[in-house]
Amino acid sequence: MKKILFTLLAALALTGCNAQNKNEQMANHKCLVVFFSHAGENYSVGNIKVGNTKIVADYISELIGADQFEIVTHKYDGMAYTPLTELAQEEARNDERPDFELVPSVDFSQYDTIFIGSPIWWGTYPQVMFTFFDRYDLNGKTIYPFTTHEGSGLGNVMSDVRKAYPNADVKPGFSIYGHEVRTNKAKVEKWISGLNL
Fold it and tell me: The whole model's pTM is what?
């Protein structure tokens, strides 16, 4: 009986040690969520004060304790949906690089894992995301792309991120319908729970 009790206590101690080691690893493993999100008039959800991608970014930050930085551009402020799609198509056609700011500013060197999110515009991230790719070198990082959309899924995001960061470890991405983000946090939770963070 004593031998069984000793074995059980040793197993519990080992489990506790493993849990402690995992917590220590997570403390040293800093995650960041970088995203662009568009409030205002959006397809399928109408005029919204908080963009769909911002909501997903908030879920991720909450679930894993990640820092969060938003790519902010005022170029699209107040635009109705149709003119915005036309402008986005023109930007993509001309390979434009709209300017932006990160709110707040960020030192990427302190992060190992970076989640990069945005809506899908014309089959991939909006052009402002490519401005971000040009400006910040995330090679050597682990990257998880994510998108909100109304039928495009991940579009060409995976290939575009891999092209921008050929020496990063770009993991399989996640996409969710924009009209689902306010009522289906469980989808984000399921994705996050399956990651090896």
Answer: 0.83
Q: Is 118 helix (H, G, I), strand (E, B) or coil?
A: strand
pLDDT in tens, 103-127: 888 899 999 999 999 999 999 999 9
Alpha-carbon span 103 to 101, nearest angstrom: 6
Q: Note the CATH number of domain 30-193.
A: 3.40.50.360
Compute CA distances 42 → 14, 46, 131, 134, 175, whole Å: 51, 5, 22, 27, 17
Preceding amide of 104 cis, omega within 30: yes
The Cα-based distances of 194 to 25, 85, 123 in angstroms read 18, 34, 26
Question: Cα–Cα distance between 82 and 57 in angstroms, integer?
Answer: 25
The CA–CA distances, whole Å, from 56 to 13, 17, 197 equal 37, 33, 18
What one-letter code names the amino acid at 2?
Answer: K
Strands 31-35 and 67-72: parallel
Token pair 């304790």 in the structure block, residue: 65
Does residue 87 sit in helix, strand or coil?
Answer: helix
pLDDT digits (tens, 9 = 90+) for 83-96: 989 999 999 999 99
Identify whether the C-beta of residue 124 lies closer than 8 Å to the C-beta of residue 161: no
